[in-house]
Design goal:
about 600 residues; single chain; about 70% helix; mainly alpha; disordered N terminus; elongated; about 0% strand; 23 helices
Length: about 600
């Protein structure tokens, strides 16, 4: 009886406890878990009270049975049964405590797992934020570095190109200030910066030089100024990197600024072409028109001798005018710091055009024929020719040779080489007119005397040849027949070559020998430069003091005015000086100083 009641009591309690365990939430956190525990506390207390009551009732019944059956059974069996019941009760209490501890342990594990999840998520988010911040800082650093590079390049161009007045002077060091300043930045970039930065400096430099040349318009002297500086810049950089002797040959080839020098040569060719065209249209073309257009006398030259003298004088003045436009300092008879080889090269191109123009004009059938080409055949007035157009004779050949000799001597006086061969077509024409005509049947003679004149043109000259007192004989018919037979075949292959076409402008950079003298004046002796590539950056060749002046031009000007007006205007000058205020240092110049000081 008591045994059955005990069993029922235990069964009634366990489902209640298991039900309570099943109803527990698997995961709680924060305020939700706390409120849930508060709500469950009364239920747990109630369950514990019921369980205690059941145990107490069972114990009481066991005691009653013990008392009532004392007279019916032996004492040993009764005490044994009581002990078994007590053990059952103790087991139930222990099971209840174990279940309660297990529930608490599960709750702790769930809470720890929840806390660990939140902690790991926070750490991941913090790591991502830190990585994003690091990338942003690196991006800003790269941007700042790029902006500093741009400011440094702008400062270099400003002080090297944009603040320079392109005037000729006797000092090569002063005239080539742009080349000297730009070379310092570029050589530093090649030695210490990456290839990308070197390319950026090179592009910026070339662009700045083009803009400076464009700003000159058709001013020949200023264009010559920049051409001289670009040639000098190219030679300075070539010498600097060619003199690197502290590394292998492979390192030398790697550091050699081939791309930069090639770009400079293209800019040189572009400026050189502009100079040639400007001199041609500003000086030589007007001299090919009527003499009145160039301020000459209106009187016609009388006689061939007077005509030749007039033409010689006219073109001598044209040559001097062209040289004065190329270099005003040398035009006035003074020494100039610009490269003289450049004026010589320009004059060679222009004289070659004059040579073609006179050759085509002389070979006209009469002086009344009009020009056919603005470059190859532009002469409008035949008075500017040394001989009459269409008058081809031995005497006219001699007169033409005399005019050429006078022009070459005039050019030699203007620092051009005396042995230089100018007027090649006119020289060949004069030799052809004075040569015995039967010798022209020999091909080797023609190639030696007049290699530039084609066979159809030789036949044209001989057909128009006129006997005179120096050569009274006509051209032999056999000579004309032989040349005619050969010229027919040549005409089929090459076509008619009159008027003779003028060659397009070409440019061959000056050799280092022609530039070496001026480079030694700009950046020191060439032998020293070959031993030390950084000689142009030494004290005495730098521009740091000029950079100080450019850093505050207003202060520089006012200081000079203060000195000149110190007597009688002290108060006024002091007031103006106070209005200027403190000099604010420009960041771009400070960045440039950092480079130049290394």
């Amino acid at each position: 009886m008591m045994k059955g009641r005990t069993s029922n009591t235990v069964q009634s309690n366990r489902p209640t406890k298991n039900g309570r365990r099943d109803q527990k939430p698997q995961k709680k956190n924060g305020a939700t878990r706390a409120s849930e525990q508060e709500r469950l506390k009364p239920l747990e207390a109630k369950e514990e009270a019921k369980f205690s009551e059941s145990v107490s009732l069972t114990t009481t019944q066991a005691d009653d049975n013990t008392v009532n059956g004392s007279s019916e059974s032996h004492p040993e069996s009764e005490s044994s049964e009581v002990a078994k019941k007590q053990e059952t009760v103790n087991g139930l209490v222990k099971d209840f405590d174990d279940d309660k501890r297990a529930d608490l342990l599960v709750e702790e594990v769930q809470e720890d797992a929840s806390d660990n999840g939140i902690s790991s998520g926070s750490e991941k988010e913090a790591s991502e934020d830190e990585e994003a911040l690091k990338q942003k800082v690196e991006s800003l650093e790269r941007r700042i570095e790029k902006l500093e590079d741009e400011l440094r390049e702008v400062a270099a161009l400003e002080i090297s190109l944009y603040s320079v007045v392109p005037d000729h002077s006797s000092s090569a060091h002063k005239l080539h200030t742009p080349a000297r300043r730009v070379s310092r930045l570029y050589i530093h970039a090649c030695k210490h910066w990456s290839q990308e930065k070197r390319a950026t400096v090179a592009r910026t430099t070339v662009s700045g030089l083009i803009l400076a040349a464009k700003s000159c318009g058709n001013d020949v002297s200023r264009l010559t100024f920049w051409l001289s500086n670009i040639v000098t810049l190219r030679e300075i950089t070539s010498h600097a990197f060619g003199s690197e002797h502290n590394g292998s040959e492979k390192l030398k080839r790697t550091k050699q600024p081939n791309g930069f020098t090639a770009a400079l040569e293209k800019v040189e060719f572009w400026i050189f072409s502009r100079i040639v065209e400007s001199v041609w249209w500003q000086v030589f073309t007007p001299h090919m028109q009527s003499p009145e257009n160039v301020g000459k006398t209106n009187e016609k030259p009388k006689g061939d001798q007077e005509k030749g003298s007039f033409s010689i004088s006219l073109w001598q003045n044209a040559f001097k005018a062209a040289l004065s436009r190329l270099c005003p300092t040398r035009g006035e008879g003074h020494e100039c710091g610009c490269l003289p080889i450049l004026s010589k090269m320009v004059m060679e191109k222009c004289i070659a055009r004059v040579d073609v123009a006179m050759f085509n004009a002389i070979l006209r059938e009469s002086e009344h024929q009009i020009p056919t080409d603005p470059v190859s055949d532009p002469i409008l007035d035949s008075k500017v020719l040394p001989i009459t157009a269409g008058d081809l004779s031995f005497g006219s050949g001699a007169q033409l040779k005399n005019a050429i000799g006078n022009w070459c001597r005039c050019l030699a006086e203007d620092s051009l080489e005396e042995d230089e061969k100018y007027f090649s077509l006119l020289n060949e024409l004069s030799d052809l007119l004075m040569l015995p005509k039967d010798m022209l049947m020999d091909l080797s003679v023609r190639e030696e005397v007049c290699p530039s004149i084609s066979l159809p043109l030789i036949k044209r000259i001989l057909c128009n040849f006129t006997p005179d007192e120096f050569c009274p004989d006509h051209v032999p018919g056999a000579v004309l027949e032989e040349l005619n037979a050969e010229s027919v075949a040549e005409q089929k292959l090459s076509g008619v070559s009159f008027p003779y076409a003028s060659s397009p402008v070409t440019y061959v950079p000056p050799s280092s020998t022609n530039v070496a003298e001026k480079i030694s004046e700009v950046g020191g002796d060439i032998s020293r430069m070959s031993r030390n590539a950084s000689v142009i950056q030494r004290k005495g060749y730098t521009s740091d003091e000029e950079l100080d002046e450019l850093d505050s031009p207003l202060r520089f000007v006012i200081d000079k005015v203060s000195v000149s007006l110190s007597s009688g205007h002290n108060g006024k000058v002091k007031q103006q000086d106070e209005q200027v205020g403190e000099v604010v240092e420009n960041v771009r110049y400070e960045l440039l100083r950092e480079v130049w000081s290394m």
